[in-house]
Amino acid sequence: MKIPRPLLAFLALLIGTAIWYFGFRSSEEDIIREKLEELSNTISNSSSEGLLGKAKLISTFQDLLANPVVLESRYPNAQGVRSPKELAIGYLGLIQSGQTVDLQFRSPSISFPNEKEARVKTTVEATLTRSSGTKQNESQTLYITLGKDSEGNWKFERFSQEI
After folding, report:
1. Backbone phi and psi for residue 73, each to the nearest 5 degrees, phi listed first
2. Rounded CA gap, 19 and 127, in Å?
3. What digits encode the pLDDT tens for the residues 62-80?
4. Taking CA 94 as the corner, what is the angle to CA 88 and CA 96, rounded to the nearest 5 degrees?
5. CB neighbours of 57 closer than 8 A, spacing ≥ 6?
6. How many angstroms separate the CA atoms of 101 and 45, rounded?
7. Beta strand 65-72 pairing with 154-161
8. How many CB atoms neighbour CB 79 within 10 A?
9. Which domains does the chain have, with CATH numbers?
């Protein structure tokens, strides 16, 4: 059986398009890594200058974080259930007092228990610079849970410190 040339050309184009699409499409793991980087950049490079800076920070927190977010920490004042807006306002208070935070996620290990949940184990390195110029460094293991919202976007739902 001989296949007509136009049909062969169409099939080759279809197969080539599928290979290109699936080869260059971001994997779920890549998307999670991008979310971690975006959160790190937001915290490390935020400015509270003017209303626009404040509004942008609050908006970014609302885009990245689920509502509500669960915080599990060995520090009592850093535990509980918070809204993204509460967390953004708390962070704004930190920057307005002249402090800065540099945050990096190192060697994230990502697993997917199901299609709507991702779990990340990572080392978080944080440097808090006080208004006096003194620095406080901390590095520890952090467990992060992300979930998909109704639109299929990954949102940070839970941050748990290794206790």
Report:
1. -145, 160
2. 43
3. 999 998 999 998 888 889 9
4. 100
5. 42, 46, 47, 48, 88, 91, 92
6. 8
7. parallel
8. 13
9. 28-161 (3.10.450.50)
Cis before 68 (ω within 30): yes
3-state secondary structure (DSSP) of residue 159: strand
For 110-140, what is each residue's pLDDT tens digit? Answer: 999 999 999 999 999 999 999 899 999 999 9
Amino acid at 104: Q
Residue labelled with tokens 């197969």: 15
Within 10 angstroms of residue 6's Cβ, the number of other Cβ atoms is 8
Residue type, position 44, single letter: S
**Token duo for residue 18:** 């599928």
- Decide if 121 contacts 100 (C-beta within 8 A): no
